[in-house]
């Protein structure tokens, strides 16, 4: 009666996790929110800067860089992926579904790996067009003040922005696994990303430390033009590669914490 | 085939399981019976790899659950309600489950039909489901991989009368087809109707592991059901004569171990007017209560033999109300 098949391995579990993402409205909605934020915000902010410049307004910074502006929406759009990352693991705990998931896939390492890979894959699939079209939308909004796709740093910066978004998703999923609750995870992550990190960055005494926070370090991956560090010793300016390294370290730590908590989980 | 041996589990200083062992042969329904908190769910969760035992073995077809390839194809599990995200539709819920174990998606329609979830319901979000529908969905999930072992934790919970009757015949059919079925419940009459064998758990130990008929025969003591105009006086007289007397919810008295003649005699001598008198053939419920009570309060070794029938009864709060009905198994 029992059908003996070769070991199911990772692939079926990965497909199952992708199905979970695709069939949960909050997950698909948060992915859509990233795309909408990047493109709409880019277009609107580009358009408003163009109007300001055309009117000779003084609110536009003299060092305004259209290239950097093209990627600025990522900093806002990331919230959608923070929520998404938290949801993919958090919803298992909050709904009690994790018991069934672990009954279907008792090898917890396989389950966790498949879940993170599915989350990262979905984030990548949406982040790529969001970053690219967001950049184009900003330039379209800027009109004559915009720039083209030919800037030399652009490929690196765009890849950096996409990588940043994917890593942030995985990091947040790890945190949600570590605290085993979507609400608790968002209660930690939202203030960290949108309050604490910016606050610490503006205070000179804490800026040296704040630049190693996951978002501040990660932002360096897609810094361009005027935002790139001139003096490597200057506070608040890691190189793009160092920024990547720091964010990867944070992500690994969060993933490990989530795995540890899952291994110890008794339902 | 399910094999559990020398299973122990501690939560801090609380001993949840103190060396539990039993086996469930294929082709039969085995009931795992015990009051709430006896350790039934812990056993089921250890069997499914959700909880790690301290010592002992819990094997399915000789393998640990986590070593099974595609476990859903071997074991169908129903855990207590609330294992589905309420934002998904039933159909989509079953879809991710099927994919995880390479189960053909065509099985989804098959199991939905099998448990009687209409197509319209299966396309609705689970948040709109009644408890009974959620339970049916849980059963559908358990059956998805066409497993030959079923482990169902409190499957009757939330089912309506129709669902309960359906479940009984369903479990019977599964066993008759050669499947191994383990059903846990705190409702003993319900389990006794379907189970061929009962494993009674109390305080983390196996109190009895017997075929259902034999359990009733061995532990259920026949007695007398009597109603009197002055039940309090009758009870006092009967107790004075050394019988174990228990008031029933309907005002009648249950006298364990006595015959109708003995009770009638005694009542006549004391000029107590009886309204009805009849023998009862001891219920499984009595047997169960007795077993659990003995486990909770082992009789002190120095107790005088005359006070032997005064076994304290456990609180009825955790147990279904007592009735003198002898459960009979449904026709096979």
From TrEMBL, chain A:
The keyword Transport does not apply. The chain crosses the membrane at residues 21-48, 68-89, 110-137, 157-179, 186-210, 241-262. Keywords: Membrane, Transmembrane, Transmembrane helix. The keyword Transmembrane applies. This is ABC transporter permease.
UniProtKB/TrEMBL annotation, chain B:
Residues 2-228 form the ABC transporter domain. InterPro entries: AAA+_ATPase, ABC_transporter-like_ATP-bd, P-loop_NTPase. It holds the Pfam family ABC_tran. Residues 308-326 have a biased composition (Low complexity). Keywords: ATP-binding, Nucleotide-binding, Transport. Residues 292-332 are annotated as: Disordered. SMART domains: AAA. GO terms for molecular function: ATP binding. Belongs to the ABC transporter superfamily. This is ATP-binding cassette domain-containing protein. It comes from Streptomyces lycii.
